[in-house]
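A reminder from the course coordinator: this example appears on the midterm review sheet, so study it carefully.

Given structure:
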């Protein structure tokens, strides 16, 4: 029987991880989201926490491909950012806007992407409004230029449990 791992991201750890998140974001921006991987998608980084901005009590959690199939626990008011490293992903969508409300999203393609690579990021931002459970999902048919996705690679699904 498969058991889905549960990951908890306390807000107090967010500040410690902030520098690593900023460095990863700068690297992704500099490389344009491209990687030499077989599927042409960027190598994902583990789920990370973005720092709270100075003077703000907003907590945030950043999720990517490695969070697929997991349950993430957050508290009300947390900003949940989903970044999928491929322009072939649909914009991530939440299943219950009463629990996890969308703040927008979309796909950003990289203009300097070499032919055959799948450069770009599909992202969405959500706010955890009240206690409950919502799923964040996205899908894709292609895992690179003219490459169908192998089984298990065409769907992104994360369960977000919101507590007080």
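Designed residues:
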């Amino acid at each position: 029987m498969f058991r889905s791992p549960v990951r908890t991201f306390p807000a107090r750890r967010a500040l410690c991880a902030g520098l690593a998140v900023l460095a990863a974001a700068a690297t992704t921006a500099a490389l344009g989201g491209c990687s030499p991987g077989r599927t042409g998608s960027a190598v994902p980084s583990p789920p990370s926490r973005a720092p709270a901005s100075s003077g703000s009590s907003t907590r945030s959690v950043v999720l990517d491909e490695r969070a697929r199939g997991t349950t993430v626990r957050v508290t009300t008011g947390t900003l949940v950012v989903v970044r999928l490293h491929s322009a072939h992903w649909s914009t991530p969508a939440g299943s219950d806007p009463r629990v996890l409300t969308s703040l927008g999203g979309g796909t950003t393609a990289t203009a300097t992407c070499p032919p055959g690579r799948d450069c770009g990021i599909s992202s969405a931002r959500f706010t955890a409004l009240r206690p409950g459970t919502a799923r964040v999902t996205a899908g894709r048919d292609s895992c690179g230029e003219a490459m169908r996705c192998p089984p298990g690679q065409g769907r992104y699904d994360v369960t977000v449990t919101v507590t007080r």
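Confidence is low (pLDDT under 50) at residues 1-55. DSSP finds one helix and nine strands in the chain.
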